[in-house]
Amino acid sequence: MRDISKEFAKFIVDDGIIKFGEFTLKSGRLSPYFFNFGSFNDSAMLARLGSFYADTIVKEQIPFDIIFGPAYKGIPIALTTALALHNNDAINVGFAFNRKLQKQYGEGGNIIGASLAGKKILAVDDVLTSGRTIKETKQLVESEGGQLTAFLVALDREEKGSETALSALEEASKAYNVNIHVVARITDVVAYMSDAADKEHHVTKIKEYLNVYGK
Fold it and tell me: Which end of the chain is more exposed for a tag (fewer CB within 10 A), N or C?
């Protein structure tokens, strides 16, 4: 059986999406790696990314009506995922995204694309470190009359939650009553790199980080 998580881990390591060094996260934690979404900077890379999201949706049979991309990174993810579902799986879905600032002219509002009202929404984003984006997205979706039923991210950093003994993923899922899915986890990345001698230092640093902040 195809291992999507393993394939994605290989992709983001071999193509330099994962950066190594010292990076300060929003949480204030100093991380030895960073998922650099800006590296998806051409059509081929973005198409591959969308295919991984689409393949995960199909494999896990995630039920939804509309794909929603929270601004800003979620916008291209929603678009490329919707296209991949159509091109690869003949699944036609609506998609939408939000503006950071509500438009006061023209069509107005802050939602562009399919209406969220009365729909089950699958939101997509790049990584899961905490539940902040999920909380904000849920509030936005519900304000438009939709129901956020699922959230899909490319990479779960597998870190501790901020308020409970649960992982950040488990904490957010429970707090906001949303099913959270992932294409891959940081442990998938570590497993892939463990066989490469030139990645030994990075593997060690990530394991040390997870010993402190991992769950």
Answer: N
Are 40 and 49 in contact by the 8 Å Cβ rule? The answer is: yes
CA distance 192 to 88: 26
What helix, strand, coil percent values describe the chain, rounded to 5? Answer: 45, 30, 25
The beta-strand segments (E) located in 51-117 are 66-69, 94-103, 109-113
Residues placed in the known binding site for 5-phospho-alpha-D-ribose 1-diphosphate: 26, 72-73, 99-100, 103, 125-133
Quickly name the fold that domain 4-213 has.
Rossmann fold (3.40.50)
How many CB atoms are located within 10 Å of the residue 131 CB? Answer: 25
Q: What is the pLDDT of residues 142-193, one digit of tens each?
A: 999 999 999 999 999 999 887 777 888 999 999 999 999 999 999 999 999 9
Q: Domain locations in the chain? A: 4-213
Contact 100, 157 (CB under 8 A): no
Give the residue numbers of the binding site for orotate.
Answer: 34-35, 129, 157
Map residue 154 onto helix, strand or coil.
Answer: strand
